[in-house]
Design a protein that fits this description.
Order of helices and strands: EHEEEHEEHEHEHEH
Bound molecules: hypoxanthine
Number of strands: 9
Helix content: 25-40%
Strand order of the largest sheet: 5-8-7-6-9
Radius of gyration: 17 Å
Number of helices: 6
Amino acid sequence: MTPHNHAKPGDYAEAVLLPGDPLRAKWIAETFFENPVLVNSVRNCLGYTGTWKGKPVSVQATGMGQPSLSIYVHELINFYGVKTLLRVGTCGGLTAKVKVRDLIIAQTASTDSTIVRDGFGPYNFAPTADFMLLRDAVARAEEKSLRWHVGNMLSSDIFYHADGLKSYETLIAHGALGVEMEAAALYTLAARFNARALAICTMTDCLVTHDEISAADRQTSLNDMVTLALDVATAA
Ligand code: HPA
């Protein structure tokens, strides 16, 4: 038990999916898991354990943003022995070449967050996905004929930037594909504590073209992303 999680040691599987939204965690558990059991409800930040195709797996909501995610991820790894962490989320698009509904699989994550600077002194750490998870996710996305992109994600602490799209100009010029709020901290903590992590995001709103996902497409896309992530998380 921790201040944020009343699960007991052993309540989580070694592989955990990480949506931001607690109700998405509930939906994932109730829609895809066999025998889902609620293991955490502190602050309504829901966590469940069950099986997927017979293999143990958990889902834990992280809340929005890197400070919130960092608390759950730190505790999942250090107090609950979690080894494989897959963020499943949505992101904004930073380039017209990524279409609404496409998956962005974050190979690396840039950030404006001080969380990633903590402890690195003069160095800029490069938060990086686990290569084996990344490779497996790409192979399975291809098999399922999903549209995917691999590259640099921006994990920003700010959703409503004072300068809007202008705030992202330099990152866009350096090839950043999308913007969300969690991947860089996830990758940094996985590196720090010797775990494996990957962030897969569905692009739901393009900041450049202003295209947005429809309600109907949102559900199909989330299904595709979650089943892909469950296959990857439970493969090893
Ligand atoms: N910014 C940050 N996070 C997001 C966005 C965005 O535009 N869209 C979905 N998640």
